[in-house]
Design brief:
Blueprint (H helix, E strand, L loop, with lengths): L8 H8 L2 H18 L3 E2 L2 E2 L1 E11 L2 E12 L3 H8 L1 H8 L10
Antiparallel strand pairs: 1-2, 3-4
Length: 101
């Protein structure tokens, strides 16, 4: 017989706000950035930027996050064609999923 599990949302939020979690998220973001390598567009190097922030919304309260961006006007097209960020995240041990609509 299946058992029901009730998540402690307040406890999870408390853990996510800890400095250790923020440090781990920042470290993982830098690891992903390092795994990107040297992306190019039209033969020219593309900068990879990271930005630490506090994410909010959804079912979770405020929590640390890192945005990793290909700093190029065609960054989305470059990612769609070559998948630099997806490959870098996978190499860092992250699972990348499509966004649900």
């Amino acid at each position: 017989m299946a058992r029901k599990v009730k998540l402690d949302s307040r406890g999870i939020a408390e853990v996510l706000r800890r400095a250790e979690v923020a440090d781990a998220v920042e470290s993982l973001g830098q690891s992903v950035k390092g795994n990107v390598g040297a992306p190019t567009a039209s033969g020219k190097p593309v900068d990879v930027l990271t930005r630490s922030r506090t994410a909010a919304g959804g079912r979770l309260s405020a929590r640390p996050a890192v945005d990793i961006t290909l700093a190029h006007p065609a960054g989305l097209a470059i990612e769609a064609k070559r998948g630099y960020l997806v490959k870098a995240a996978s190499a860092a041990g992250l699972e990348v999923k499509r966004r649900r609509k």
